[in-house]
Write a structure and sequence with these properties.
It comes from Aliidiomarina soli. It holds the Pfam family Lipoprotein_16. Keywords: Signal. This is ABC-type transport auxiliary lipoprotein component domain-containing protein. This protein has 189 residues and is an alpha/beta fold. It has a single domain, classed as 3-Layer(aba) Sandwich (Rossmann fold). Helix content is 34%, strand content 36%. The chain contains four helices and seven strands, in the order αβββαββββαα. Strands 1, 2, 3, 4, 5, 6 and 7 form a seven-stranded mixed β-sheet that branches. The chain is elongated and about 80 Å long.
């Protein structure tokens, strides 16, 4: 009886160690390469731009597995530098400009819930824009969300493209916003 208990205990210990070893060998996702296409033309106006990432976590991808574990991946380049680059396609950046635009990243993540036979994905982006001019301050929030699902394992590269399209949509709303553009162009005149 004692020999059998020791054998069972040894087998359970070996199984648990094997599971932890395999879990440790699981590779984390590569950094997410985003390339949102912003549809805008240069306005000729200049702004001083500050992009701040206020999210609690800096990852853009959370890949949740059916065994209650998760992998995380950040954006490369960083989300703040990516947004700054896209905003610069609309307005020239000049740190001495009297028109200051602060873009705060409040949320930017896509969550993939990977099951054994299907996956579900949620995409969420929320940016807060605060424009300060000699005439005052304007605040606007730009956001978007999407959901998708599919059979079997998630194609992370495809889902990255979906997230990039959502981010592009939110950035297009920001850079082409009538209120922001009227205040920025009004200051340039």
């Amino acid at each position: 009886m004692i020999k059998r208990l020791i054998t069972v205990t040894r087998n359970v210990t070996l199984a648990v160690c094997t599971i932890f070893t395999l879990a440790a060998c699981q590779s984390a996702p590569d950094p997410v390469a985003l390339n949102p296409q912003v549809d805008t033309t240069a306005s000729g106006a200049s702004i001083a731009l500050n992009v701040r990432d206020q999210r609690a976590h800096n990852h853009v991808l959370r890949l949740e597995h059916s065994d209650q574990t998760a992998d995380f991946a950040t954006a490369d380049p960083s989300l703040a530098s990516l947004i700054s680059d896209r905003v610069a396609k609309r307005w020239a950046l000049d740190d001495t400009s009297g028109t200051q635009l602060q873009v705060t990243i409040e949320e930017a993540v896509f969550v993939v819930k990977q099951g054994s036979l299907r996956h579900d994905t949620e995409h969420r982006v929320r940016l807060q824009a605060t424009l300060t001019t000699a005439d005052g301050e304007v605040e606007k929030t730009f956001s978007g969300s999407r959901e998708s699902n599919g059979p079997l394992r998630a194609d992370v590269k495809k889902i990255e493209g979906e997230f990039a399209a959502l981010l592009a949509s939110v950035l297009n709303d920001l850079v082409n916003d009538d209120t922001l553009n009227q205040h920025i162009v009004g200051e340039a005149e």
